[in-house]
Amino acid sequence: MKKSVIREWVESIVIAFVLAMLIRTFVVQAFKIPSGSMRPTLMEGDRILVNKFIYGAKIPFTDFRLPAMSKPERGEIIVFIYPRDKSRDFIKRLIALQGEAVEIRQGKIYINENILNDPKFARQYYNRGDYGLEGEKIIVPDQSYYVLGDNSNSSQDSRYWGFVSNKYLLGKAFLIYWPLSRIRIIK
Known about the structure:
single chain, 187 residues, alpha+beta, Umud Fragment, subunit A, eight-stranded antiparallel β-sheet
């Protein structure tokens, strides 16, 4: 007996939905940039793709993660669950890794007393909040990261609320795909 056309359509739609959810959960997810905290790297309204398997995708409804392809590195733009409101996702640049001493001094970032000279950090960083005061070294706890927005003057970041736990990492931003005039690999 032949399958009905409706049944074939329903099966196709269900399979497509399941595949889309698996890809979104474990491989790649699209995000829209809501604010100017990452200017000029990312602009309001940019639509980006985030690699979720690189740091080990989180298995839904558990505290388990898949094996990571690599560890987060300084300078990468990461997406994570906002530590103060678990219903929101944030995007910032990774500045310091666990065990490192980070300090913002005269607008520059110092890690373990060494200035970051990489062009990714060639901007003015402002001393703000409880975790970004002038002359104060902050030690990043185990399994955590210190993150800052590229637009330091207009960014709610680690200077205000502290550290991002490894368990909140969602992935690494790697591509702006919209608008067409801004399509590029994210660095």
